[in-house]
Design brief:
- By secondary structure, this protein is an all-beta fold.
- The protein is about 0% helix and about 40% strand.
- It has a five-stranded antiparallel beta sheet, with no helix packed on it.
- β17 and β18 form a beta hairpin.
- The longest helix is centred in the first third of the chain and has 5 residues, at about 50-55.
- The two termini are about 40 Å apart.
- The relative contact order is 0.10.
C-alpha cells in the first residue's frame, strides 16, 4: 500500500476529492478470467481447489429444488460466452465430466460445446455448419450430433447422427472417427468397416467401452476400446421383445445411460418404455406399459410419451427426458415412476419443480453432486434442477452515471452502501461517486435522488444538503437513515418524516477533521468512517477505518470507542486490547453482538456488547478456502450483514464471492465463482466484481453492492 492514509477500499475514485494521498488498492482483484489455466477445450484447470468448493452455491440445501437456466438465451443461434448470454440451437445430448464441466451436443449448430465450472460456454469442436471433416477443434465438422459422453481420461465420444459415425475428441481437441464408415447400414467388426444407422445417443463405462443407441438399426451396440463393434442387444427388427440379445426388440432407441454396476438403461422412444439391459445383453422393461401417456405409478401402469433422454444417479434413480410430455420423470430402482420436474405443457418457466415448463426436453444427465441437467431442445437452453440461489440485477445499467429511472434503467456511480427499511418497501443507496443518497422503491424499482446536491458539506433540507463520498449506511426502526459520510469524516442522519422534514440532513457526530477524538458529537473526530450499524435501542456503531477502531454513538450523539487501540494489527481481547486493520462493514444482531469485516486482516470479527473481540472466521491469510473458523480464508472482505438466525453474510471483495457463515463459524459460498465480471444467474455461475456491501431484506433475500459494476444485485434465497 503506497500510504496508510487511505480508505482500504480505495475509493479515491473521485478526482475532485480532497484527500491526504492517492493510492492504489493493496490487493487488486484482477480480471481473473485472463489468468485461468485452460486446456484446449476451455476446461478450467484448478487442481488445488476441490470440486465442492468450485461448485458451492448454496449454504445449506434447505430450500426446495428448483429449475433454472445455466446456458442459452432461448434464441436459436450460435454464440459462446457466459451462460446466460450464449446461444444454442436445438441441443440434444448432454453429459457431465470432471471439475463440474457439462458437455453439450448442440445438434442444429453441428458442434460440441463445453459449459465449464465458472459458467462459460465454449465450442470444443465443429464448424457450425453440417458436414464431415476430421481435424482439430473448429476445423472438424459434424452433421447433427445428438449424443455425447466423456471418459475418465477426458476423451469425448459423439453420436454424429447424420454422418452415421461415432466420433472421438481427444483432450487436445483432435477429432477423429472412432467407428463407422459414414454409410447408413448395419455391419459389425472393426470400427473402420462397421456401419451405423442414425446413432442417437452414447455412453462410456469405466473400462473405456462405448455403448451406442443405434436408433435406425433398432440395436444397442458396444464398441471396445480398440474399436471393435458388436451388437449388445436387439435383433434389428422394430418392435417390442424381451430376453437375450437376439430376442430383444426396440423401436427407435434414442437414449442410453449406464449405472455403477454396468447396467444399461435405454429410452425406447416409440415403445414408450424405459428398458434395462444387463452387461451380458439380457433386456427387460424397467417402466412403461407401451402406450403413450402421462401416468405415474408401478411399471405396468406408468406411461411415457416419446422418452428420449435417460440418466441414472449413484443411488440408482433413473431420470427420463419425457419429450412428448415436456417433463422430467424419475424412476426408482424398482420401476416406480413419479414426476420430477415440468408441468406437462410446453413452455419456458423457471422455479418450482411442478410449475417449471420445458419444451421437448431431449437429453438428461446427472452431475457428481446430484444436480440434474436437461437439454431443453425447443427452448434452446440447458436447464439445471438443483438447489441454488438466483442472482439478478436490482438497479443499475452497469455504466457509471447520474441518470435516475427504474431498476436497470437507472445509473449509479461507485455505489458503496445499501440499506433497506424494516418493512422492506424502500432501499437506500450510498452513491459514493455522485455524493448522493438515492432511494429505490423495492416493488416498482423506481429510483430517485433522496439527498445530495453535490460534493461538499451542508446540513439542512434535501434541496441544499451536501455529502462527500458517502459509504456505509443503516436504517433504524423509526425510519432514520445513518450515513458514514466518509470524506467529510462525519456520521450524518437523515429524517424520513413527511414534508417539510422529509430528507432533512443533520450531523450526528464528527467535526469534519481527520483525526481521533471521543466526546460529544460536534467535538468527536473520525478518520474515514466506513461502516455503520444501528441497534434496536438507537445506538449507532461505526467502523472508523483509518483509526482502526470501532466507535459507538449514543442516540444524542456522544461518541466513545468500543474496541480497538488505533494500531493497525491483529489482536483479540477486551476493548482497547484488540486490534483491527482497516475495519469496513459492520452489522449488529438482535442480542447486540457486532460483526466486523476486518478488511486487511482477512477476517470476520465478533464483538460482544461488552466489547470483547474475537474472530468468527478467517485465518488471516489472504486467499480462498471454505471451512470452519480459522480454516477459512477470505480476501479483503468489505461488507457484512447478519440475519435473525445469526448467520453472517460477507462481501468477500477480492474473491468476488458472497459467503455465508453459520453461528458455529462454518463458511460456505452463497454466490459467485471467484472471477471478476458481471453475470447474473444461478449462484455458482454468477460473476461479481469487487462486491463491497451486503444487505438483507425482511424475506431473507441478500443484496450486494458492487462499485466496479455500478449495480445493486439481488440474491434470491429459497
Amino acid at each position: 500500500m503506497a500510504s496508510a492514509l487511505v480508505p482500504a477500499i480505495g475509493l479515491l475514485l473521485l478526482g475532485s476529492c480532497k484527500t491526504p494521498a492517492t493510492v492504489v488498492r493493496k490487493t487488486p482483484q484482477t480480471d481473473s478470467i485472463n489468468l485461468v489455466k485452460k486446456d484446449s477445450f476451455g476446461i478450467v484447470k484448478k487442481p488445488s481447489v476441490s470440486l465442492l468448493k468450485k461448485r458451492a452455491a448454496v449454504v445449506d440445501p434447505v430450500g426446495p429444488l428448483q429449475v433454472f437456466t445455466i446456458a442459452g438465451t432461448g434464441l436459436a443461434a450460435n454464440t459462446t460466452g457466459p451462460g446466460p448470454q450464449s446461444a444454442l440451437n436445438a441441443p440434444a445430448g448432454i453429459a457431465t465430466g470432471a471439475n463440474g464441466n457439462v458437455y453439450i451436443a448442440d445438434a442444429a449448430n453441428h458442434r460440441i460445446c463445453l459449459f465449464n465450472s465458472i459458467g462459460l460456454l465454449y465450442t470444443i469442436a465443429g464448424t457450425g455448419a453440417p458436414g464431415y471433416a476430421e481435424g482439430t477443434g473448429t476445423s472438424a465438422a459434424f452433421n447433427s450430433p445428438t449424443g455425447v459422453a466423456v471418459d475418465g481420461a477426458g476423451n469425448i465420444y459423439v453420436a454424429d447422427q447424420n454422418n452415421n459415425r461415432i466420433r472421438k475428441i481427444t483432450p487436445a481437441g483432435e477429432v477423429s472417427t472412432f467407428a463407422g464408415t459414414g454409410e447408413a447400414g448395419f455391419s459389425e467388426g472393426p470400427g473402420a468397416t462397421a456401419k451405423f444407422n442414425a446413432p442417437s445417443a452414447i455412453a462410456v463405462d469405466a473400462a473405456g467401452n462405448v455403448y451406442v443407441a443405434d436408433a435406425g438399426n433398432q440395436r444397442i451396440r458396444k464398441i471396445t476400446p480398440d474399436g471393435l463393434v458388436r451388437t449388445l442387444a436387439g435383433n434389428g427388427n422394430p418392435g417390442y421383445g424381451e430376453g437375450p440379445p437376439s430376442f430383444a426388440q426396440f423401436n427407435n432407441p434414442v437414449g442410453i445411460a449406464l449405472d455403477a454396476d454396468g447396467m444399461i438403461y435405454v429410452a425406447d422412444a416409440n415403445n414408450y418404455r424405459i428398458r434395462k439391459i444387463t452387461p451380458s445383453g439380457v433386456t427387460s422393461t424397467l417402466a412403461g406399459n407401451g402406450t403413450p401417456g402421462n401416468l405415474d405409478g408401478e411399471p405396468g401402469i406408468a406411461t411415457f410419451n416419446l422418452p428420449f433422454g435417460v440418466a441414472v444417479d449413484i443411488d440408482g434413480t433413473v431420470y427420463v427426458a419425457d419429450k412428448g410430455n415436456h417433463r422430467i420423470r424419475q424412476i426408482t430402482p424398482g420401476g416406480v415412476v413419479s414426476p420430477f420436474a415440468g408441468s406437462a405443457t410446453p413452455g419456458y418457466v423457471e422455479g418450482a419443480l411442478s410449475a417449471a415448463k420445458f419444451a421437448l426436453p431431449a437429453g438428461v444427465a446427472v452431475d457428481s453432486i446430484g444436480n440434474v441437467l436437461v437439454a431443453d431442445q425447443a427452448n434452446n437452453r440447458i436447464r439445471e434442477i438443483g438447489y441454488s440461489v438466483i442472482v439478478s440485477t436490482l438497479v443499475g445499467t452497469g455504466t457509471a452515471g447520474d441518470g435516475v429511472g427504474t431498476g436497470t434503467g437507472a445509473q449509479l456511480k461507485d455505489p458503496m452502501g445499501f440499506a433497506i427499511n424494516s418493512s422492506g418497501t424502500t432501499g437506500y443507496i450510498a452513491n459514493h461517486g455522485n455524493h448522493q443518497i438515492r432511494s429505490i422503491n423495492m416493488s416498482t424499482g423506481g429510483v430517485m435522488v433522496l439527498d445530495g446536491l453535490g460534493q461538499g458539506f451542508t446540513d439542512g433540507p434535501r434541496q441544499v444538503a451536501r455529502l462527500n463520498g458517502p459509504f456505509g449506511m443503516a436504517v433504524d426502526a423509526a425510519g432514520f437513515i445513518y450515513v458514514a459520510d466518509m470524506l467529510n469524516n462525519r456520521i450524518r442522519k437523515i429524517q424520513l418524516r413527511e414534508p417539510p422534514y422529509f430528507g432533512w440532513v443533520t450531523t450526528l457526530a464528527g467535526n469534519g477533521t481527520y483525526g481521533y477524538a471521543d466526546g460529544p458529537g460536534n467535538t468527536a473526530a473520525f478518520y474515514y468512517p466506513a461502516g455503520v450499524a444501528v441497534d434496536a435501542a438507537g445506538f449507532v456503531y461505526v467502523t472508523d477505518e483509518q483509526n482502526n477502531r470501532i466507535r459507538k454513538i449514543t442516540p444524542d450523539g456522544v461518541v466513545s470507542t468500543l474496541a480497538g487501540n488505533g494500531t493497525a494489527g491483529f489482536a483479540e481481547g477486551q476493548g482497547d486490547a484488540a486490534e483491527f486493520n482497516s475495519p469496513n462493514g459492520i452489522a449488529v444482531d438482535a442480542a447486540g453482538n457486532l460483526y466486523v469485516a476486518d478488511h486487511y486482516n482477512n477476517r470476520i470479527r465478533k464483538i460482544t456488547p461488552g466489547g470483547l473481540v474475537s474472530t468468527l472466521a478467517g485465518s488471516g491469510n489472504q486467499g480462498f478456502n471454505l471451512g470452519q473458523g480459522a480454516a477459512a480464508d477470505f480476501n479483503s472482505p468489505t461488507g457484512v450483514a447478519v440475519d435473525p438466525s445469526g448467520n453472517v453474510y460477507v462481501a468477500d471483495t477480492n474473491n468476488g464471492r458472497i459467503c455465508k457463515i453459520t453461528p458455529g463459524g462454518w463458511v460456505t459460498t452463497l454466490a459467485g465463482n471467484g472471477y471478476a465480471g458481471y453475470v447474473d444467474g444461478p449462484g455458482r455461475y454468477a460473476w461479481f466484481k469487487f462486491p463491497t456491501a451486503v444487505t438483507l431484506d425482511p424475506a431473507g433475500n441478500v443484496y450486494v453492492t458492487e462499485f466496479s459494476n455500478n449495480v445493486i444485485r439481488k440474491i434470491k434465497v429459497q
